[in-house]
Amino acid sequence: MDNNREFLMRRLHSLLGVIPIGLFLTQHLIVNHFATQGVEAFNQAAHFMANLPFVIFLEIFVIYLPLMYHAFYGLYIAFTAKNNPGHYSYMRNLLFVAQRYTGVFLVVFIAWHIFETRFQVAIGAGEADFNMMENILSNPLMFAFYVVGVLSATFHFANGLWSFLVTWGVTVSAKAQRYSTYFTLLVFIVLSIIGIRALFAFI
Amino acid sequence: MGEAAKTVIFEIERQNSTDESSYWEKFELPYRANMNVISALMEIRRNPVNMDGKKTTPVNWDMNCLEEVCGACSMVINGKARQSCTALVDQLEQPIRLQPMRTFPVVRDLIVDRSRMFDSLKKVKAWVPIDGTHDLGEGPRMPERKRQWAYELSKCMTCGVCLEACPNVNDKSDFIGAAPLSQVRLMNAHPTGSMNRDERLNAIMGEGGLADCGNSQNCVESCPKGIPLTTSIAALNRDVSIQMFRNFFGSDHMVD
Predict the structure, then answer these.
(1) CA B73/CA B197 separation, integer angstroms
(2) Which domain does B41 fall in, by range?
(3) CB distance A90–B241 less than 8 Å?
(4) Which EC number(s) does UniProt give (chain B) (predicted)?
(5) Number of residue pairs across A and B with CB atoms under 8 Å?
(6) Based on the domain organization, do B108 and B126 belong to the same domain?
(7) What is the pTM of this model?
(8) Among B25-39, B89-103, B134-148, which stretch is predicted with the lowest mean pLDDT?
């Protein structure tokens, strides 16, 4: 019991990935989906989210702190692995490697995404509305960057949900783990469709 | 048979001692029916001449049972860790590449020092304490169906293949790997062993323990004995989740 700091940090990393980050991602992609219903619907939803009571505290405790912990500790985890997908090209090992690559990419993508949107709003250089995203996504390279970013996020969340269930001892048997693979695959597909549809609504 | 004599080509990564750098050496041997990697290594030992026709030192390797129950002859064959006694030449792509399992310190050529696995077994208390100052008598009985299940876990021969295949067992991490973790599950399942289950669970919650598993599941794919290592890991995750709450919030149940 004396030296289990690493254990608790890993468990916290696993927990925060799903609650709140995974839930926030889902909510974020669903709110984005308002873009498919037109400029007015999206702006109304964005306005509602941006003006929630105590929004700065919600952002700090539900988004910034958990996300930063998950990102920085995740980088440490990613770089302590010695990936070996060449000789051991089993499905789970490939997903293990993909989880680490998408994780590192997401640190870059999300940092850039926050700088381009929330940070610009914070310094008064813009407003988080349909216009802002339309401007960003009008650049084809940026659009591709966002598509890869959204797919990385949905994959990282879905696959992370699978290992969350193992890490907390929910899915124990090989059969349970196989079924949770199907379930998390469904999560990946559904969230990806929602996310990508929203992106295409801006062009 | 009339054809030109068939041969087998081996490429072996050699190393004279732990601190020296490694080098590759090629050997060409006459093919014999049903030969395995060990019999080929024995042939090289009998006639240590490499493919350039130069006399060299015999290749060193470790072996014992020759029937895949001791784990001593484990090495990396064509990129995958496995036992060389059951690696049949007929089933391998040529040239056959032999390498030591570098997760462990190399002693010489293909011989590695697997001491860290035995240290891990000590760390996680993978034994059943039965010594007392007086005769403790018989332990509780184990249900037969449970015994049959536990027997599968007891097949572990500490060969080290699961550690070699694991991306999280390396020089940058302290992770003890799947084999000693599965032994915790075996000892905790034992009716007498379970009397100390909390001690083992707390041990694997320590540095380099259970939490370092990244679920790549290479261990269960590679285990020569087919031990359900990832099921053991997930089951221990469940036990440890409960143990964590007991430790944090307190409990009047030390064991069960």
Answers:
(1) 33
(2) 7-112
(3) no
(4) 1.3.5.1
(5) 112
(6) no
(7) 0.93
(8) B134-148
Give the residue on A whose Cα is nearest the Cα of B198: A1
Cis check for the bond before B191: say yes or no (omega within 30 of 0).
no
* Same domain (yes/no): B135, B225: yes
Cis peptide bond N-terminal to B140, omega within 30: no
B138 is written with which tokens?
């018989």
CA dihedral (B103, A101, A183, B230) in degrees, to 10, reads: 10
Decide if A77 and B238 are in contact by the 8 Å CB cutoff.
no
The pLDDT score that the predictor gives to residue A2 is 53
Question: Within this chain, do residues B108 and B199 fall inside the same structural domain, yes or no?
Answer: no
Question: Are B11 and B26 spatial neighbours (Cβ–Cβ below 8 Å)?
Answer: yes
DSSP β-bridge partners for residue B8: B29
Q: What is the ipTM of this complex?
A: 0.93
Place of tokens 């995974």: A22
Do residues B131 and B243 both lie within one domain?
yes
Pure H helices in chain A: 5-16, 23-32, 39-50, 55-58, 65-80, 91-116, 118-122, 130-137, 140-167, 174-201
CA distance B182 to B152: 11
Which portions of chain A are predicted below pLDDT 70? Answer: 1-2
B79 and B96 in a single domain? The answer is: yes
User: What tokens appear for B207 in the block?
Assistant: 């540095």
Per-residue confidence (pLDDT) for residue B256, from 0 to 100: 65
Q: How far apart are CA A83 and CA A68, in angstroms?
A: 24
Q: A interface toward B at CB cutoff 8 Å?
A: 1-4, 6-11, 77, 79-84, 86-88, 90, 92-93, 96-97, 162-163, 166-174, 177
Task: Determine how β-strand B111-112 pairs with β-strand B96-99.
Answer: unpaired
Query: Is residue B98's pLDDT more than 80?
Result: yes
Provide, for chain B, the percentages of residues in helix, strand and coil under a 3-state DSSP scheme, each rounded to the nearest 5: 35, 15, 50
Residues sharing a CB contact under 8 Å with residue A200, sequence separation 6 or more, in sequence order: none
